[in-house]
Amino acid sequence: MPPGLYQHLMQAMADDWEAGGVVRRLLGEDAPTAAVVQLRLLAGVQRLVLRRVTPELTMYYPNLGGTASPEHAWADVEPVLRAHFAELQEALQLAPQTNEVGRSAALLIGLFDVVRRAGTARIRLLEVGASAGLNLLVDRYRFSGEGWSYGPIDSPLHLSDVSIGAVQPAGFSIVDRRGCDLSPVDAGTVEGRLRLTSFVWPHDLHRHERLRAALQVAQAHPVQVDAAAGSDWLQQQLADTPDPGVLTVVWYSVTRQYWPLQEIRAVDAAIAQARRRLPLATVCMESPVSAADSTPVRGFRPAELTVQLSRPAGEADPHPVVLGTVADHGVPVRLAAAAATSADR
User: What's the DSSP call for residue 210?
Assistant: First the structure.
């Protein structure tokens, strides 16, 4: 695949930085590499384009129908950086947030597993790092894979080919759903929808399509996302005991790697304490973690879909069970042969 718009722009931005141009003045001399400031800046530029403030750039953005060669984009982008300097500096304060709805496929497959093994179909779903809460609407989307499908057939969002390996659906109903995030995004506002869209790369047309569909669902079925740190929020939420026959499921995806070690331990402690007194499962899509200290393993490895089910005085998984690995944006989920959401485990 030839280099896309962002590949060309990031190379040009690096060259401009070395030359002491507008990029260096925007980002500052000591821009932290962990903050991925280049993506924050490109998202800020894309918000200008999406708002039609910079019509001269539209021709470079495939998600807006642009077909111009990205090789020539920098000549038009560089003046935009200078003309909108203050606004783009503010954009650097926004951490990347796409609320990738493809990850709901991993959540769904994890729910199939824990619902079947727990013997209950009623779910209280809690998401840490929920962003706009789009994945909390997992039961409002349509999914399909080889030999199976699930969800409303008339849903605006249909995720197809979501799995590699056998999947056995299990019916469930979400009786309560809620999330938390340090900086929640309100999907019900124009600004919230714009923010999520701006962090999706322009050439990822399929991701733009499914984000638009998920936002349509969220408009009809808004969810509550609280502004809070995960550990504090979980302690409060898990202090409440749901009705008998309800399984509490804590879900999070591609967020643990950004938590400080103290937060990782606090989240784990809140969940461990709750396991001793109520039926609880975790469904996680995260990088593999070290058994020694529960921190992410160094080096690039695919995210793992893990589940852990416990019921007081009943069945309990002593450790998280790996159901499979997951692609960067959630689909497909490649199921492990030994797991494959088996009801026999």
Answer: H
